[in-house]
Amino acid sequence: MNEPPKEGIKYVETTVRLPYHYVAGDYKALYLLALKEKRILGSKCDTTGKVFVPPIVASPESFAPCSQLVEVADRGVVTTFCVVNIPVIGRNLELPYVAASVALDGAAISIFALIQECKPQDVHMGMRVEAVWKPDGERQGDHEDIQYFRPTGEPDAPPETYINRL
Amino acid sequence: MSKLRNVAVVGFAQLPVVARDEHRTATEMLYPVVRQALQECGVHRDGIDYQIAGSTDYMDGRPFGFVAALDVMGAWPPRQDLHLEMDASFCAYYAWVRMQAGECDTAIVVGHGKTSEGDPQRVLNLQLDPYYQAPLGLDPTSTAALQASAFLARGAATAADLAAVAARNRNNGVRNPDNQLRSPTTANELAQSPWAVEPLRQGYLPPVGETATCMVLAAEGKAETLCDKPVWIHGVDHRTELQTLGARDLSRSAGAKLAAERALAMAGLAKAGDVDVIELMAANPAEELILLEALGVDPRAGKPSINPSGGALCANPVMSTGLIRLGETFRQLSGRAGEHGVAGASRALAHAAQGHCLQTNIFWVVGSQRRWS
Amino acid sequence: MTQAAPTAAPLSQRQKMEFPYKHSTGPTIGRFYAGLKEQKKIWGQRVAGQGVVVPPLGYSEIDASEAGEWVEVSDRGTLTAVALVHHPIADLHPSAKPFAFVLVKLDGADTALAHIVSDNLDTAKVGARVQAVWAADDKRSGTLRDIESFRVVG
């Protein structure tokens, strides 16, 4: 035979394994450590005064440094949300559940949050919610220290108070 | 050569290269560098038309990792932006091209990446094809050693030459405060260091290091307002070679030779020896000798001055090493090189490479006077 | 540059990323691999501007023209480059003990194949003659490592 076999090997299968050793950066480190103490930190833009949560070193909007870390409330307002009806790998939650953007009081932007202790159909924009923390002694200084957010029962926030904080 | 638009390097900033910055992410390292480069030019971010970044996601360990860097590049209101997975020197080329097209007058060019977070040997294995080369486990040090062995086997240099070149770079690098390696050494000492991958010794190779870099480019008319001594781009060219290592003559760099010839021709220079300073991105001494052979420059002649900064052997931060070479020529020609300055330098050649065994090469010719009138 | 930003003790996290890939080989590379596995033969292709290319790609890297006929080459050849790995990297390199990455110009080929030499490393020099060491019939699976390594001969 003066040719290789007509039927070739179809695939090369490989698993690329890459180890990483990520640096959190001091702002994120302080943010995570504060969660252990049930405190949520943001950083304040030197120019505009806007507070970013989690804290970042510079404002993407003004290009000014955010030199100061400030504490924001562990309660806020649902700015947008969606009802999740499909399972997500690595998330063991009963379907359907609500994933929301929550603008914490004092923060210029929202964080992602799970809303529980209410029916999905009751969640709405402007709803006031508060963090439900893991008990003392169980908080590790990671994002799971806040288990979820739940409605506070306060009156809804008017749209103009959160429409620019989505 | 037709007349082109005069474009200049008007600012350059970098962090001193370190093995690992434990306190800052890549993005957080980049921010003060962008601020410093703009501050030195006396320009607010709004005064810059275009931005382009060089980084690699595999090194960052996150897909689309470069997007985070936009936050610290002053990317609001919406900017014209581009990202290359190449050394930032190649990014500077794209900014230059856009200026030639008349689409912008000013640009920032940044390089970033936390080399210490990932593993460059494993990451850069993935630059090779996934069928014949990457599956063997070839890493950049090993392919560099293959190239060095082919170069030595051709009889173009001896093992002693490698040690001498490494020592010259290392000793030059003592005077550059941005270098990771700053201790003086001797060829003898380096020649006795343990093997990395034979024929390359550990003393011939740079350590893993990281930084962030930012260059400001501006076209004639703007450049003079941003810098007391703009360093003008006289010529540039880049060329790439075959992906299959075994299909190339690894003992030579045909791509570097052609790119240099074209860049020099654009600059109106007859030969590389006509410049005062050459900054090469050679990550080992065999690469430097191969590049010098391609340039027709004898490293023993003493002129041009080769890698007065210490070159890539003293600091090799992935994605920025090449831009630092161009930044170094800016420092040399604008009187900003401090202790490693070359007196009276008015023309320089800056090189960058990408890929295994000098696969892709770019050459810049810069001068303290405008190229075209 | 004047910001006196808050500082913290360094915080870091180790993580291993795994990326599974299944690369299609296409008509050329797949047949080259099948030749290794089923025939214990090394095939190249005649390519404009390059001569007999091993390993083959189906096209010319020089001018992008389509490759021509298949040509069987010898499993013996000459080393054109040698990189002696004294400290192998775990989970990347093909051997835990010192070995050499090599480029081998096989007899009948005009380009060199990247591979490894595992034994008698002191004889693995540029110019040395080498011979393929084939994996056993039941071990060959259609990869480049169906040739386990090359060994220096003569």
Total number of distinct structural domains of chain C: 1
Number of helices of chain A: 1
Number of helices of chain C: 1
Mean pLDDT of chain C: 95
Order of helices and strands of chain A: EHEEEEEEEE
Oligomer: heterotrimer
**Would you tell me the overall average pLDDT of chain A?**
96
- End-to-end separation of chain C in angstroms reads 66 Å
Helix content of chain A: under 10%
Globally, the shape of chain C reads globular
N-to-C span of chain A:
68 Å
Rounded radius of gyration of chain C (Å) = 21 Å
Index terms:
heterotrimer; A: 166 residues; mainly beta; five-stranded antiparallel β-sheet; three-stranded antiparallel β-sheet; 1 helix; 9 strands; 7% helix; extended; B: 373 residues; alpha/beta; Peroxisomal Thiolase, Chain A, domain 1; ten-stranded mixed β-sheet; two-stranded antiparallel sheet; 33% helix
Describe what you observe in this structure.
The complex is a heterotrimer of chains A (166), B (373) and C (154). Chain A has one helix spanning 26-36; strands spanning 11-23, 40-44, 51-52, 68-72, 75-84, 97-104, 111-115, 128-133, 146-151. Chain A has 166 residues and is mainly beta. The N and C termini of chain A lie far apart (68 Å). The mean pLDDT of chain A is 96. In chain B, 33% of the residues lie in helices and 19% in strands. Chain B is globular and about 50 Å long. In chain B, the strands form 2 sheets. In chain B, strands 3-2-4-7-1-8-12-11-9-10 form a 10-stranded mixed sheet, sandwiched between helices. The mean pLDDT of chain B is 96. Chain B has helices at residues 26-41, 57-60, 66-70, 88-100, 120-125, 140-153, 159-173, 187-191, 223-226, 254-267, 285-295, 311-314, 321-333; strands at residues 7-14, 50-54, 80-84, 106-113, 195-198, 200-201, 211-219, 231-240, 277-279, 305-306, 347-354, 360-367. With 154 residues, chain C is mostly beta strands. In chain C, β6 and β7 (113-117) form a beta hairpin. The termini of chain C are far apart. The mean pLDDT of chain C is 95. Classes of the chains: A mainly beta (166), B alpha/beta (373), C mainly beta (154). The B-C interface holds B 22-23, 32, 35-36, 39, 61, 121-122, 125, 130-133, 135-139, 142-150, 152-153, 194-199, 242-247, 250 and C 1, 7-8, 10, 12, 15, 17, 21, 23, 25, 29, 50, 53, 55, 57, 61-62, 80-87, 89, 92-94, 101-105, 111-116, 126-127, 143-145. β1 of chain A pairs antiparallel with β1 of chain C, so a sheet runs across the interface.
